[in-house]
Amino acid sequence: MDMEEALLQAIQDNPSDWTPWLILADWFEEHNDPQRAEILRLQYILGQAATTAERPLQEERLCQLLRKGVRFCMPVRTNSIGMRLTLVPAGTFLMGSRPRYCTGGRNEHPHEVEITQPFYAGIYPVTQEQYQRVMGQNPSRFSSTGRDKDKVKGMDTRSFPVECVNWDEAADFCRRLSQLPDGKIHEHLYRLATEAEWEYICRGGPFLKTIFSAPDSGNHLDLNHNPPFDGYPKRPTKVGSYPPNLLGLYDLLGNVWEWCADWFEAEYYKRSPRQDPQGPETGKCRVLRGGSWICDSRSCRPAYRNDGVPSSRNGSFGFRVVLVASVRT
Questions:
Q1: Domain match, 63 and 105 both
Q2: Least confidently predicted of 8-17, 80-89, 246-255
Q3: CA–CA separation, 230 vs 198, rounded Å?
Q4: Core vs surface per residue 73-82: b (16+ CB within 10 A) or e
Q5: Residue 101 sits in which domain range?
Q6: pLDDT in tens, 115-126
Q7: pLDDT per residue as tens digits for the range 210-243
Q8: How many CB atoms lie within 10 A of CB 135?
Q9: Distance (Å, whole) CA 175 – CA 98
Q10: Per the domain annotation, does 302 fall within a domain?
Q11: Are 27 and 7 in contact (CB under 8 A)?
Q12: Which residue among 149, 154, 168, 305 has its CA within the 20 to 30 Å range from the CA of 188?
């Protein structure tokens, strides 16, 4: 194991300790990679809770480096079925959007939320191949045996996001994945993201608080991300077909809607706790986020809120998983 791998491992072992980020930055500096050293130091500074007068300039510099193609440095884990997950540090962000950005009559009241614990998020939505391996079946419409097989004729859809999955099946997938040999510590090792966690990862986690907090554009759209809005194929696409967001996550907007753990309530933001909101205790529908191949850009926004009956399935409904950061795979 070289020094870079060792330091990334140290970050994984204690995600709340930012010291290894600075040590790794020094290591990149010594090995003639000043831009990666700079991006790591910016990650260190911006990952802290404090907001300073210099923060907007620091955020803008981070975005400049990313636009140049400098790699963001985040630890990644790969589990036994080849699913890759990236570390998401704890932090605060502005959830929701201004009233003029809201569409569809859903309350997106802007409010600060703190995610108190680091976690790992799937780099991609769950794919058809991964779902097949865990569940023993593939319900997707856009597959070689699905209802819309003619629309994907000749395509290898194993890396397409699984769809036509209802909320109960998505939750069951997480339970079964947790029980595989590399994830059997407890039943809920893998799970669906809460609505707050989903918007947190969509907006890039703790690193951007000022530049993108007012307009509801989403970090990855401003970093030249081109999700499949109007004019793109009216079907799901292979995961990772479009550039990633700030955390290196793909397909958060515009491929398939993603089930979240929460029950849906339109007015929930008015009474939700500041720390780690879990959604209402009961409800009739579960939260869906991110828009899909069937949506226009108005619905493919980080703050846009949708819902579905847990038993409902649709060719635009999929999901991704998150992983408890304190438990190793």
A1: no
A2: 8-17
A3: 24
A4: bbbebebebe
A5: 76-324
A6: 999 999 999 999
A7: 655 443 444 444 333 344 454 456 899 999 987 7
A8: 17
A9: 37
A10: yes
A11: yes
A12: 305
